[in-house]
Write a structure and sequence with these properties.
The complex is a heterodimer. Chain A contains 5 helices and 5 strands. By secondary structure, chain A is an alpha/beta fold. The longest helix of chain A is centred in the middle third of the chain and has 15 residues. The two termini of chain A are 17 Å apart. Chain B is α/β, with parallel strands linked by helices. Chain B has 3 domains: 42 residues, no CATH class; 209 residues, P-loop containing nucleotide triphosphate hydrolases (Rossmann fold), CATH 3.40.50.300; 50 residues, no CATH class. Helix content of chain B is 46%, strand content 13%. In chain B, strands 4-2-5-1-6-7-8 form a 7-stranded parallel sheet, with helices on both faces. In chain B, helix 8 links the parallel strand 7 and strand 8. In chain B, helix 1 packs across helix 2 and helix 2 runs antiparallel to helix 5. Classes of the chains: A alpha/beta, B alpha/beta. Chains A and B meet through helix 1, strand 2 and helix 2 of A and helix 2, strand 3 and strand 4 of B.
């Protein structure tokens, strides 16, 4: 039996709109993954500790607050320092298009905007895992 | 990727990421799992292990969070293992117990691990005992284990911890519910949680009466404790009761007896797993499917199917 992928779904910062995060958490679950759902108002330190303690393979960040540049940089940097293995970081939410290359430079593998079918995100994660 | 012995060294020095990796190795039965268990087993048996079980919504995660904070005032390191159910269809799971424990996230003396029960029906996963045992060997002083929300028969937790707390809430059912067999028999402590709600005293009274009906199995008298995470009350009482139970269990020999029972069950489970894996390895999946369709179309009965799969020498 192959082990289930472990995914942390987190909402950093001060926005409480968690519907997107809950939908994607459910989609990951329905795809057979183990989803650690942390809820809203998470700080970088809280998210990184969760990923490390849970030995997660994937981190899904949902951000609608506009603080994506700050969190992408801070979280990806802390993960590189603290995690025992490579963690795939994906982001969902509303980002101005010029910011997308910037968060990718920080270490976010892909950004999924509004209207992205959940299957696209699942496929992306599975492809990454298969390539590991 | 680090080797198991490198991980063990780092984990013993307290590196969170290394501890987390070791837990995954034993949880997934990855290569190296045997080495991890072999290397850590001799150092187990030092931690205080307390289990929390009860129906969904009884407040297990929140109470565990309050207790974590309270234990941290007395010991340097506390670990929490929280189990949630997996989907019977996809095997996936949403593990949401951390949400209730967010106040403990930033305490470096606290380690929280979420687990899926991975389809097991006993309230824990097959690997929970192994995960707890690794944490024990890593020097955590207190390990709190939270089961999935349970009904009346999920009792695996008794084989993993020293003291089992069964949570109930006011108004959860009449006194007939409370005299049924099953989970209530494995409770070392009964906790009426959310005791700020109406009906808490009645619930305590019902449980006390229920306890007085039976013939006790030993000289431990199961206490009933009221707690409220809202008001922050009862936490000290609960910790006191846990301490008393542990002292009693050590003096009376119950702790040793229970540990031997748990190890027996663990060894039997490991034997079953190994034999089953070996059987499955030898079996052609096509043959299994073929037998299944014969049973479905009533050309064969289930017993006959097993005879066919295992061959004549295994006939029951």
């Amino acid at each position: 039996m192959s082990k289930p992928l472990r995914v942390v779904v987190a909402k950093p910062g001060l926005d409480g709109h968690d519907r997107g995060a809950k939908i994607i958490a459910r989609a990951f679950r329905d795809a057979g993954m183990e989803v650690i759902y942390t809820g809203i108002f998470q700080t970088t330190e809280m998210i990184v500790r969760t990923v490390v303690e849970e030995d997660a393979d994937v981190l899904g960040l949902s951000i609608l607050s506009g603080a994506h540049l700050h969190f992408a940089e801070e979280i990806c940097k802390a993960l590189r320092e603290q995690a025992a293995k490579e963690v795939l970081v994906v982001m969902g939410g509303i980002l101005p298009p010029p910011d997308i290359p910037k968060v990718k430079e920080s270490g976010v593998a892909e950004v999924f905007g509004p209207g992205t079918p959940t299957t696209t995100i699942i496929d992306f994660v599975r492809k990454w895992h298969a390539a590991q | 990727m680090k080797t198991v012995s490198e991980l063990l060294t780092a984990a013993r020095a307290g590196h969170t990421a290394a501890i987390a990796r070791l837990l995954s190795i034993v949880e997934n039965d990855e290569p190296g799992a045997t080495e991890v268990i072999r290397a850590t087993y001799p150092q187990t048996g030092r931690a205080l292990k307390v289990g929390f079980t009860g129906p969904p919504g009884a407040g297990k995660s929140t109470l565990v969070s309050s207790l974590t904070a309270a234990y941290r005032k007395t010991v340097p390191r506390v670990a929490v293992v929280a189990v949630d159910p997996s989907s019977p269809y996809t095997g996936g799971a949403i593990l949401g117990d951390r949400i209730r424990m967010r106040e403990q996230y930033l305490d470096k003396g606290v380690f929280i691990r979420s687990m899926s029960n991975r389809g097991q029906s006993g309230g824990l996963s097959r690997a929970t005992r192994r995960v707890v045992s690794v944490l024990d060997a890593m020097g955590f002083d207190v390990i709190l284990v939270e089961t999935v929300g349970v009904g009346q028969q999920e009792i695996d937790v008794v084989r993993v911890v020293d003291t089992v707390c069964l949570l109930t809430i006011p108004g959860a059912g009449d006194d007939i519910q409370a005299i049924k067999a099953g989970i209530i028999e494995i409770a070392d402590l009964l906790v009426v949680n959310k005791a700020d709600r109406p009906g808490a005293d009645e619930a305590v009274k019902d449980l006390m009466q229920m306890l007085n009906l039976g013939t006790p199995r030993n000289d431990w008298r199961t206490p009933v404790i009221k707690t409220s995470s809202n008001l922050g009350t009862g936490i000290e009482d609960l910790m006191g009761a846990v301490r008393k139970h542990r002292e009693w269990a050590n003096q009376s020999g119950e702790a040793q007896r229970r540990n031997a029972d748990a190890m027996r069950t663990e060894i039997q489970a490991l034997m079953r797993e190994r034999v089953l894996r070996e059987l499955e390895r030898r079996m052609d999946p096509k043959q299994i499917e073929d037998v299944v369709s014969q049973v479905v179309s009533k050309r064969l009965d289930p017993y006959g199917a097993v005879d066919e799969l295992l061959g004549p020498e295994a006939k029951g």
